[in-house]
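Sample log: Echinoderm microtubule-associated protein-like 5.
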Amino acid sequence: MEEPIRCAAVNVDGIHLALGMKDGSFTVLRVRDMTEVVHIKDRKEAIHELKYSPDGTYLAVGCNDSSVDIYGVAQRYKKFGECVGSLSFITHLDWSSDSRYLQTNDGNGKRLFYRMPDSDSFLGGKEVTNKEEIKGVHWASWTCVSGLEVNGIWPKYSDINDINSVDGNYIGQVLVTADDYGTVKLFRYPCLRKGAKFKKYIGHSAHVTNVRWSHDYQWVISIGGADHSVFQWKFIPERKLKDALHIAPQESLADSNSDESDSDLSDVPELDSEIEQETQLTYRRQVYKEDLTQLKEQYKEKQKIGTSKRRDYRGYDCRSNLFYTQIGEIVYHVAAVGVIYNRQQNTQRFYLGHDDDILCLTIHPLKDYVATGQVGRDPSIHIWDTETIKPLSVLKGYHQYGVCAVDFSADGKRLASVGIDDSHTIVLWDWKKGEKLSIARGSKDKIFVVKMNPYVPDKLITAGIKHMKFWRRAGGGLIGRKGYVGTLGKNDTMMCAVYGWTEEMAFSGTSTGDVCIWRDIFLVKTVKAHDGPVFSMHALEKGFVTGGKDGVVALWDDSFERCLKTYAIKRAALAPGSKGDLRFNLLFRKKINCSLIRTSPFNILGLLLEDNPSIRAISLGHGHILVGTKNGEILEVDKSGPITLLVQGHMEGEVWGLATHPYLPICATVSDDKTLRIWDLSPSHCMLAVRKLKKGKWFSDLSID
């Protein structure tokens, strides 16, 4: 698989998984072991949609060149012909229940029908223009966005591309939609009249690219494009809505082109590729969520679908955003959602007060409150209670475009924040009163971290690109002094920073793998800690913990003179409870009569995407080390050695491909992050398998068998 995937489909028996690619090709894999069945390239433009016929005979493949190709499944996907007539790219496909008719939507909003000939040898589907012939056709699925049956889903003044995906539930007589405004909506089906009533639900911080019902219609799966998120929503029929009120709370639902470089993407010297890619990220947008009136009051609206599970963690462009709460739960963020995860009960609770991407998170010294900062034209910082999941304070008015770093003072009364405006403005707040205490320009280059002095609340440090600065409050402003390196080193890029055992001691991790030891503003020593950038550092009562791009967690003494112990994050070190592929195989053994499931290209030693993933967050508590990776994984390291994988999900890029299995509680997602992932929709809510691809994918579908 050499190109980004745009779509996915599963056949009716759940045996084949088809993936449509951006270069005009498609690949079919066996679901049980992910070996390749066939790879075909008949088109030059992207495959936008594909779908198996209900009887398993055909695979329809819709292309951006406005054609639909029909392939015979039993004939090893021999091309039988094509359906022509559309004047724009194909966006959606649906088969009739008897597999004789196919309906299509295109980029112009045009709906066309085709009849499949009775003979196995044909040149293509014949377009049906007689409306009477179509009247009695029952469609096996409804995923088209255009048609009489879905007229009511379109808001006034909407554009034909505003709604990305729909899926009908014939049993519940409802229809779910995904749109460019970041909302998931629930309509009655059929939805004939313009301006139909609906329920809408938030959580995604970007356009929702796809939405599908589970095989038993109890769940809705939605995926976000730019937020890389997979949401699982619980569907509660109206007749059961009263019972739903009794659901337990936790169920609520050198030269960088040299051989030493790991990238040839840049000619900026002495900058690691991960750091370079992150500095190039921009969160500035033409339209922010706050501009969309449709999103107002959503959090307060009575809901009929409840968010059940968030399957990922944001680590690819964030750091030090993962903590234990007072009672041992785990708090992190993804998309516009703050997540509280109970690892014992495998349940999640959600803070939904934000309306756009959360970029940073920190926890109060008492471990009961959390502060989160988001993207926005006038971005807000929310301080909220981890127990009640209610906001305590919302701070805004002094940052632009977004907030990239936050930190509480040791007494918990103040909060420091850094914006992503051109000056990377630093603000010191009295958060309980909602008042600004001090403000200053930080740096023209990106700042990654702000840390308040635990001994003197008027002091703090910031670290970033060629930046280490020591600040103290002076009235309504802040006075900053650059760190002085002298002859001990050079002005390096700092990725993380913490204070030490006195108010004058500070420690920072560099992009070259060193730990810098500072006294006041002076660099006094450097220690080689990791191969590659030191992305995260956590201070203990007696010592430190660091994590780097090399995928190693290191325990240090209180002066960084000795490394006491290291933990390499590898698949082989995962505890048995993390090895999900065995569960994946057993699931298929129950349903499919097969004597032996072969070793597959999927990760069979555990669900880590790769050994030694880049570590972006480290926190300690309750006898464990909590680790967050760039690959969207959260792991818990026991100090005796075993590692448990708790959370995983998609990374950077957009997530478009989504397919649910026809009779098993699983679904498949594909993304620009070049991974194919299989998810369990049952109460365990875990990822069953992951395959790393050479290039990203756009769509997928599972075969009917």
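Observation: DSSP finds four helices and 53 strands in the chain.
Observation: The radius of gyration is 26 Å.
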